[in-house]
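Sample pair:
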Amino acid sequence: METGNVKILSSPMAAAHLFEGWDEKIVLSCLQSVMGNIYADSEENPSSAAAVMGDFCFFAGQPSECLVSYDYEKDFLIMVPQSEAWSELIESVYKEQAKRRMRYAIKKEPDCFNKEVLLSYVHSLKPSCSLKKIDREMYERCFENDWSRDLVSQFPTYEMYEALAVGIVVVKDGCILSGASTYARYREGIEIEIDTRQDCRRQGFALASGAALILECLDRGLYPSWDAHNPGSVALAQKLGYTFDFEYPVYEVYI
């Protein structure tokens, strides 16, 4: 597929060299053709590329105004620049539409988890609540509220979710209070999404569901990758066994 100078790569790995050293699992999902797409300036020898999956768009290689201004058919994107030159281009194209903020990278360490500690978090859940895997019923109910939609929204059908994803929700009296699920899938693991209903925060629900999801991933031989939206997410990740790596800039763009 081709639009102007921008192409959706039929062989995404042709752009792998542009993302070399960038340990982002959403990018890997796009490169592996599991979820998302790689957009580039050339099918066979790209010098600029964008990995687009869900709300995220990672720009790599030589800065390209065509890629930054391209219509990815989304109302909102979190644009992630590989370099300051990409940042300057995003700011130049979108001006006040581009809100710069920081995200927090978490180290990818397969052996960082203590299963006994994770089990203690699972068992710390209030007796009035229960943990349930996201089956068809829970999948459909996640779409009923804006706060829980992102737990499953990257998978347009339950069949796709069942094939690629794994998730756990906290339920009380039939209501979903919190959950930990798959935002993106790559061959070797998942990128975690955690959400909690606003009036249910700071009650240990995210900790319990996150621990249960990590244990489920380990049982399946999948790595549960984590990237933090804010310092609170970093603190939760560290409690679960992860290690903070570094902060990096992104641009939230409403198009």
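The two ends are 23 Å apart (CA to CA).
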